[in-house]
Amino acid sequence: MIEPKVAVERLRTAFGGPDRHRTLHAKGRFYAGTFTATAEAAELGRALHLNGEPVPVVVRWSNAGGNADVPDKKPDIRGMAVKFQLPDGSSTDLLGQTSPRFPTDDPAEFVAMTEASLNQLTFPLFLLRHPRMAGPIIAGLTSKAAVSHHSFAEPAYYPIHAYGWLDAEGRRTWVRYVFKPTATKADRLSQSFDGPDRLGAEMAARLARGPVTFEVWLQVAGEGHDPHSAVSDWKGAREVLAGRIVVMAELPDQDPLVFDPTRVVDGIELSDDPILRYRPLAYGESIGRRT
Ligand code: HEM
Q: What would you give as a GO molecular function for this chain, any one (predicted)?
């Protein structure tokens, strides 16, 4: 396993990011909203935020790169991190990004891919040398995961890992999430937004018009769907609408707030996915460098 310290050092070097920012997803803004679960979610999961009562959420939309000064028009993967605040004072996080599939179970390969992706001339060579990773990476490119997005409200975001939901009787269902936008090209604002922070400006104007809503969908694991691997493709999985995230307003900077994909609550279990298990180690190193 690549030492988390080494991974963070290499990622920081690749982006040339100064210490006070996140190693990846360095540029982002915070927002306030609510999450309300559906009755179907309440049946599958006993966790408190799934009981159908609205709970507050803190959302951070971000550009995936490690450079906090990047102009928003630069093509990039975007992130949507969500912190669900439960009535008992606990919280649980989901971190989505616009790429529908993750290319590897090996953190070292993720670091090498991130480094290689910064050089467009040599990246095809990296793909030739890592044919297993090429499929998911190309799926990301063709699904427009890394483009010059018009708005943080328009793409779908994928938290990638599977989580085990326990119901009231303790029965476990493995699920994967998708945050599906309700915004469409047709309901874009008439203004256009330029400048290095145009995604933030667009969101401010959009929220002045009204809330921004995402549907939270679950893929439910069936035969042959492996919950313990980030690369496993759950073709044909049953889909269930689990609830809605409604974002209402921008928040002042919340840093040093931390989103951690292994922060779960009673009723939600972690899988043995090696990428999921590695992430808090790398995030811990990053948090140490930015706080
Ligand atoms: C081995 C794999 C990965 C590594 C080494 C890695 C590394 C990192 C690091 C170091 C940070 C900054 C943490 C901080 O300072 O708070 C970060 C943030 C983030 N990562 Fe990852 N990551 C990995 C996989 C993933 C995956 C699979 C996803 C999406 C499903 C993801 C989505 C995000 C998001 C959305 C953020 C920003 C969170 C925020 O807004 O605070 N990462 N990642």
A: catalase activity
Nearest alpha-carbon partner for 8 in 108, 104, 103, 82? 108
Residues at CB less than 6 angstroms from ligand 1: 7-8, 22-25, 28, 60, 62, 79, 81, 95-97, 102, 107, 110, 159-160, 258-259, 275, 278-279, 282-283, 286-287, 290
What is the distance between the alpha carbons of residues 149 and 20, in angstroms, rounded to a whole number?
26
Identify the CATH number of the domain in which residue 119 sits. Answer: 2.40.180.10
Give the domain extent around 156.
4-290
Q: Which atom of ligand 1 is nearest to the CA of 102?
A: 27
Indicate the number of domains in the chain: 1
pLDDT (tens digit, 9 = 90+) per residue, 83-127?
999 999 999 999 999 999 999 999 999 999 999 999 989 899 999
Instruction: Give the closest residue to 49 by CA, choosing from 202, 266, 196, 274.
Output: 266
Any idea what the Cα angle at residue 220 is, between residues 219 and 224, rounded to 5°? 105
Distance between first and last Cα of the chain = 26
Residue 139: partners with Cβ closer than 8 Å, 6 or more residues away: 100, 101
Q: How far apart are CA 258 and CA 29, in angstroms?
A: 13
Q: What spacing in Å lies between the alpha carbon of 79 and ligand 1's midpoint? A: 9
Contact 98, 158 (CB under 8 A): yes
Q: For the beta carbon of residue 226, count every other beta carbon within 10 angstroms.
A: 15
77 close to 71: Cβ distance less than 8 angstroms: no
CA distance 167 to 42: 8
pLDDT at position 134 over 80 = yes
Q: Count Cβ neighbours within 10 Å for each residue of 194-203 and write b for 16 or more, e otherwise.
A: eeeebbbebb
